[in-house]
Each structure stands twice: as C-alpha cells, then as structure tokens.
Amino acid sequence: MDWGMKNRLSRLVKEDGRCFFLPIDHGYFQGPTSKLEKPGETIAPLMHLADGLFVTRGVLRSVVDPAAAPGIILRVSGGASVISPDLSNEVITTSVEECLRLNVSAVGMSVFVGAEYEHQSLVNLGKLVDECNRYGIPVMAVTAVGKELEKRTARYLALCSRIAAEFGATIVKTYWCEDFDKVVNGCPVPVVMAGGPKAETDREVFAFVHDGMQKGAIGLNLGRNVWQHPCPVAMMTALRAIVHQNVSVKEADKIFKDEKKKAGQK
Questions:
Q1: Catalytic pick from 173, 254, 257, 260?
Q2: Sequence-ordered alpha helix ranges (H) in 106-231
Q3: By three-state DSSP, how is residue 238 classified?
Q4: Could you name the CATH architecture of 3-196?
Q5: Strand 91-92 to 19-23 pairing
Q6: How far apart are the first and last CA of the chain?
Q7: Angle, nearest 10°, between helix axes 232-245 and 202-214?
Q8: In Å, how far are 37, 87, 164, 179, 183 from 157, measured between CA atoms?
Q9: pTM flag (> 0.90)
Q10: Quick check: is 147 catalytic?
Q11: In terms of CB atoms within 10 Å, which end of the chain has fewer, N or C?
Q12: pLDDT tens per residue, range 16-62
C-alpha cells in the first residue's frame, strides 16, 4: 500500500484501528428520506463525532462545510431509484477525476450479489478498483441487498463480503447479522457494520454494535439509527464509546442517558 492510500485511510480509520462513518447518501435512490430532507441541518451537530462521512457529490458540495468536514467517502454508484423494478441496476456515476477534485478520502459503491445485475455490479467494482489504485484512493464496497432484507444471513453476507474483497475492495461495508464472526473471519479486508432499518430500541442498537465489534468489525457505518433518533447526538456519542473505548452495552446506555440529561432531553 503506497503513501497516498495510507494517508487517505488515516483520515478515516483512527490510531486505534477503529472508525465510525456517518452515511447520508440515502437520497441517491430514496429521495428526501425522513430526517434527511435538509441534510446540512441534520449533520451539523454530528460532524465532530464522525470519523468519516459517506455522501454523494451533490450533497457534499451543497451542504457540507469543507472547513469542518471529517474524511469523505464519496458514493460513486447509482442509476436506480426506490420506485424502479430493480435496485441492482447500478453503474459508476462519478469519475475518479471528480473524486480527486473533491479531495475525498475514499469512494464507495454497492455490489448486488445474487441479484439480476450481479455481473454488472461486480465488474463495476473491479474497474473502479483499477482506476482508484492508480491514484491511491481506497474503495469501500457495500454489500447491498436491495429490497430483500431477509437475505441478511451470515452465509449470504460472508459470500458477498469475500467476493468484494477478492475484487479488490479496501474495506467492506456489510450488515450485522447473527454469527457475524463468520462474515468477518471469511473476509481478508477490514469490515464495517451497516445498521439497516431503524431499530426498535436503543439497547438493541447498542447490543448489535457491541457484538459486531467483539466479533471483529473495525467500526460502523450507521445512519438511520443515529439521525432518525430523537436524540441523535446522545446516540452517536454512546455508539462512538463502544467503537473507540470498547465500553459495554450497559456502559453505553449510561453514556446515552447522561448525554440526554446534559442536553435537557428526557
């Protein structure tokens, strides 16, 4: 790994080898997602808690303060919307030249293993890795499942993650699942956890994040369970403590409640 690649990764993965990325790229296929109607206002109180921001170029340019931004992971795939027949019909939408112009720390794209456009998405990943390697830009592969969330089993996610790594991804973003260690152990590159749909309780979020970290994830790429929460700063502070301070679920819950009190929230 050359100097440029290492330098870009150091903006995202901290000295303890762990990271907390805040994804706000949902609008590229969902439109104005709840609580992200005005993304600049949503992320303003959270930016200092994020090690990286996963974002599209449109939102990056329009609402993210370049003087206050953490490391940027630029979403570079797309082409299908939530109302289209198949979310897997994605292509690369952003050039490497644009990524360099924006001085991003990494790029991210989705792969759809087992979907109709599996071949297209995997070839996209291979080509993107080739292009980005020329310029020392890390690539984060996202193991997308489209609308079929029941696919999120250890067997399926281990398959997706390993294939993404084999195609050259620097980091793999995948969903937490039962037996998550099977996913991590079969993937030769670092794994970060995605959250998926908003969880029912705060403890549920703390529990799966703690479990995933104990089973080998290097961090989180968690969005809706943070910025759709009534107390997003308290939530992100508690989750950050699990990632970077290795606190327990019980300790995280106490941090969360203490932060809420500080902010005058019930």
A1: 173
A2: 118-135, 154-166, 180-185, 202-214, 224-227
A3: helix
A4: Alpha-Beta Barrel (3.20)
A5: unpaired
A6: 48
A7: 20
A8: 31, 18, 10, 11, 6
A9: yes
A10: no
A11: C
A12: 999 999 999 999 999 999 999 999 999 999 999 999 999 999 999 99
